[in-house]
Design a protein that fits this description.
The complex is a heterodimer. By secondary structure, chain A is mainly alpha-helical. Helices cover 46% and strands 11% of the residues of chain A. Chain A has helices at 12-27, 33-46, 49-61, 63-71, 73-78, 113-116, 121-124, 126-131, 136-142, 179-183, 188-192, 202-209; strands at 89-94, 99-104, 152-157, 162-167. In chain A, α3 (49-61) crosses α4 (63-71). In chain B, strands 1, 2, 3, 4, 5 and 6 form a 6-stranded antiparallel β-sheet that branches. By secondary structure, chain B is α+β, with helices and mostly antiparallel strands. Classes of the chains: A mainly alpha, B alpha+beta. The interface between A and B is large, with 85 and 93 residues.
Chain lengths: 210, 212
């Protein structure tokens, strides 16, 4: 499972501090316990990167949708039912053979929740936030991603409430695949821009895993 | 403010060391889950906005900000806001006037979000293709203009309309300003060793002036 980060084993005083705060808020009636459960349930089980994968696979198979997505992403994804907190305003940027896009938030952790759910630890980490803007190739290398020297790298620093989603390139030899098959190739990381979409050969692997 | 949170271009922070996507849990400890939920639930009380919330996390000693984990910074911010807004020691009548969302209420708020686009009759000062220079901003208040781009020049590539201006919003003033996507040459920001061709940054009109 996950490897050891120092935050996985917080000092017990931190756990106690959170427990004390929650008890106080509940006691004062400032939060509703059912609302807390709903908030957690929403992001643990309902809102996650499958939403983004749906949007990307649809864009790969439906040229009209892709055009709408690149023109006004907020409306295009709202038509599929995707709207909500941290996804109110959305821009989709397209990767091509000559341009690769990468998304970061150097000031905090802005991330398209409605498309991808909550951001992973590395996206919120100081090294990623520091380095993505200045040394994107080294950052991509840490994810095992190597791009040709001729590919331009464009980095999007999410400083406003506009959220950015990368439309990865469709993997080779998937032209006759349907939307459901293609969704399995769309990783979360490919929609942030640190990786490419999975190759066609990955689908067997995905099938075996599930 | 140029605090510990303003990280673009900083050196010495080490490798990213990402967990494999398929293996990463959403939360790494139960207390993180609780801090996340408490932060969103108390935010729904409407006693502070997202920019005040961000500023509460930023107003820490940079060493603390960098040493603490992500959700620990959220906890610090939440404790600070609850204290500064006197929410925990408030008079009974103040708390009675608050609307505490239940499960259905919370679900509705999450689903509808909080759009920041506003109407504005003031004409936009800049148009697509205009060259602009980012002003130096050294105030200690909240801002969304990263230090690494202050003083740099770039080109307006998109106009997103008018959005709530974070610098004022963090002080409790709900006001809109034109928001632009601005493209900066990688080399201009990072010199000859820049690994990227361009950085795109969203910047509000008060941050910008015509390029010198």
């Amino acid at each position: 499972m996950s490897h050891d980060h120092d935050h996985t084993e917080p000092p017990s005083d931190l756990e106690l501090r959170v427990k004390a705060l929650e008890s106080l808020l509940l006691e004062k009636g400032l939060v509703n316990p059912d609302a807390l459960n709903t908030i957690i349930e929403t992001y643990e089980h309902k809102v996650g990167p499958r939403n983004g994968a749906h949007v990307v696979a649809k864009a790969w198979t439906d040229p009209a949708f892709k055009q709408a997505l690149l023109t006004d992403a907020s409306s295009a994804v709202a038509d599929l039912g995707y709207m909500g907190r941290q996804g109110e305003h959305l821009t989709v940027v397209e990767n091509t053979a000559s341009v690769h896009n990468l998304v970061v938030c150097t000031l905090c952790s802005c991330y398209p929740w409605t498309m991808l759910g909550l951001p992973p630890v590395w996206y919120k980490s100081a090294p990623y936030r520091a380095r993505a803007v200045s040394e994107p190739r080294s950052v991509l290398a840490e994810f095992g991603t190597a791009l040709p020297e001729s590919t331009d790298i464009q980095v999007w620093d999410s400083t406003s409430e506009m959220r950015y989603l990368v439309l990865p390139m469709q993997p080779a030899e998937t032209e006759d695949w349907n939307e459901a098959q293609l969704q399995a190739l769309v990783s979360r990381n490919s929609m942030i821009g640190v990786e490419l979409a999975r190759p066609a050969t990955a689908l067997d692997q995905v099938d075996n895993d599930s | 403010m140029i605090g510990g949170h303003d990280l673009g271009g900083k050196h010495g922070l080490g490798p990213i060391d990402p967990e494999p996507e398929s293996e990463e849990p959403l939360f790494h400890a139960d207390w993180e889950r609780r801090v996340f939920a408490l932060t969103l639930a108390t935010g729904m009380l409407g006693q502070w906005n997202i920019d005040e919330s961000r500023h509460a996390r930023e107003r820490q000693h940079p060493v603390d900000y960098l040493k603490q984990s992500y959700y620990e910074n959220w906890l610090v911010g939440l404790e600070k806001l609850l204290d500064e807004k006197h929410l925990l020691e408030g008079a009974e009548e103040q708390q009675e006037s608050l609307r505490i969302p239940d499960a259905a209420g919370a679900e509705k708020i999450l689903a509808s979000g909080g759009p920041t686009q506003m109407s504005n009759t003031a004409p936009a000062r800049f148009g697509i293709g205009d060259k602009v220079t980012v002003q130096k901003r050294q105030g200690s208040g909240h801002t969304r203009v990263p230090a690494y781009v202050q003083g740099a020049s770039g080109e307006i590539v998109d106009h997103y309309g008018t959005h709530v201006f974070p610098d004022a919003n963090a002080e409790g003033e709900h006001r809109g300003e034109h928001l632009y996507s601005v493209r900066f040459d990688g080399e201009l920001l990072w010199g000859n060793e820049s690994q990227g061709q361009a950085v795109f940054i969203d910047l509000w009109e008060p941050y910008l002036e015509p390029a010198k």
